[in-house]
Design brief:
About 75% of the residues lie in helices and about 0% in strands. By secondary structure, the protein is an all-alpha fold. It has a single domain, classed as Four Helix Bundle (Hemerythrin (Met), subunit A), CATH 1.20.120.1760.
């Protein structure tokens, strides 16, 4: 992530390391933010002030991404990178992906089926990356919809759904009511499928080159 090179985030990572905050604790905090984001998304369909929940979801998604960035940076600062840290880096991420996208499926005007499908595709792209590493290739983070891009789509959709006037919201016959999140999830499903295919192709090429 290019953001890791910003002076501000480097200083934040150094401050967290100096304060004794562990990378694993940051990973767990990111997972909690992801779970809370999913709850906020789902709450938009039942809360009287749903737009506030949309804004809260957008903020929580970004907090999750911030934690995902800082845990690795703090691990470098404290020289605490370890095999156990790999588990804390991966498992909370998959839980966060599922919570956010499934929650978005239950958001106002959205479709639960799209949320589950988006979650499956997001986890599948991560699975391909991990399997590539196990098979002996490098970790493939290519897009077009890797985790940062998926979360960007979810964030922008949440902000638009929460802030744009009702008559600016997409109205599709197949999806009742306000369907901004449904469209965002559909984009994530298609983009994640393309991402998975690209990763498979790149990993396959890398493995063929390394085969004697």
């Amino acid at each position: 992530m290019k953001s890791r090179d910003f002076t501000f985030w480097i200083r934040v990572a150094k401050w967290l390391a100096a304060a004794g905050v562990t990378p694993n604790a940051i990973s767990v905090a990111g997972m909690i933010a992801g779970l809370a984001a999913g709850i906020a998304f789902a709450s938009t369909s039942v809360a009287h002030y749903g737009w506030i929940c949309f804004i809260a979801a957008a903020v929580l998604v970004q907090l999750r991404l911030m934690a995902n960035m800082l845990d690795g940076m703090v691990a470098v600062q404290t020289a605490r990178a370890s095999p156990l840290g790999e588990l804390f880096n991966e498992v909370p991420d998959r839980i966060s992906d599922a919570a956010i996208l499934i929650g978005a499926g239950y958001a106002a005007g959205s479709q639960p089926e799209l949320g589950y499908l988006a979650a499956i595709m997001a986890i599948f792209t991560a699975y391909i990356r991990a399997e590539g590493k196990v098979a002996g290739a490098h970790q493939e983070f290519c897009g077009p919809l890797a985790k940062p891009q998926r979360m960007a789509v979810a964030t922008f959709a949440a902000l638009y759904a929460g802030l744009a006037p009702a008559n600016w919201q997409p109205q599709l016959a197949a999806w009742p009511g306000r369907s901004t999140m449904a469209l965002a999830l559909l984009l994530i499903v298609v983009g994640a499928a393309i991402t998975a295919l690209r990763r498979l192709v790149r990993i396959g090429r890398a493995l063929r080159k390394e085969t004697p």
